[in-house]
Design goal:
mainly alpha, single chain
Length: about 250
């Protein structure tokens, strides 16, 4: 699929924005990137272009957070089920029409934004952690295989477990990285991530990392809570628009 120079420049700017938001609040790169890109290019293409920048930025986040072995040991149930469910779901992703992907994506983004804005946070006691990891990992994997976004179930699980801030950053980085690997493999095997698209996706790593560094710097001077609220409001609007586009297309 040919991408014009003008469109490529807009895509790069979109990844710069998404990377900045991730650097500022620790999450949101695929959600922002895919939601914005889906407004101008095919939803499946938007997902494909996001895979490599998502993987690289989260590997970076994992190594910056440290305690890799400890984090994996704690969340191995979530990781295992996430990998299996993404591998299974992604096998059928090519057969799903783009308008269905838009509706699923829009619904996930909108529900996540509204629940977050309402500060709806369930509580999961420690004795139920294994079951919570299994259920959340399955939900995240099913969503991730179709839309490349599995942050909502992950974030709900971590907040419900009342995970400390530093561990939250380590866990999100690791679990998104772990899920990116089977997604990357399946998109290559089913022919969605061609060598040309892989090159374009790889180029987008640079604006993402520049944005990430910028976001980390801005975090010192901007109220993360207020900015997070604004971002969630934008998520809700974008999600609703994606649902609308999926219905009318």
């Amino acid at each position: 699929m040919e991408i014009s120079t003008d469109t490529l420049a807009i895509i790069a700017f979109t990844f710069l924005i998404a990377g900045t938001i991730k650097g500022l609040i620790g999450i949101g790169l695929p959600t922002i990137a895919i939601s914005l890109l889906s407004l101008m290019i095919d939803a499946r293409l938007a997902i494909t272009l996001t895979i490599i920048p998502m993987f690289v930025s989260n590997v970076w986040q994992v190594f910056r957070g440290g305690k890799i072995q400890e984090t994996f040991k704690r969340y191995w149930i979530f990781s295992t089920i996430l990998i299996v469910s993404i591998l299974t779901t992604a096998l059928f992703s090519r057969a799903i029409p783009s308008n269905i992907i838009l509706i699923i994506l829009g619904a996930v983004v909108t529900i996540y934004a509204i629940l977050s804005l309402l500060k709806w946070t369930p509580h999961i006691a420690g004795e139920y952690d294994a079951h919570a990891q299994a259920g959340s990992g399955l939900a995240a994997g099913l969503l991730g295989g179709f839309t490349a976004i599995w942050a909502p179930p992950l974030i709900i699980y971590l907040t419900a477990r009342q995970i400390p801030k530093d561990e939250f950053i380590r866990a999100t980085g690791m679990l998104i990285t772990v899920g990116s690997i089977p997604l990357l493999i399946e998109y290559i095997q089913n022919g969605l991530l061609t060598s040309k698209l892989a090159t374009t996706s790889g180029i987008m790593v640079m604006p993402v990392l520049i944005g990430f560094i910028t976001g980390e710097y801005l975090r010192r001077y901007i109220s993360t809570t207020k900015f997070h609220t604004i971002v969630l409001g934008i998520f809700a609007v974008m999600g609703t628009n994606l649902i609308y586009r999926g219905i009318i297309s």
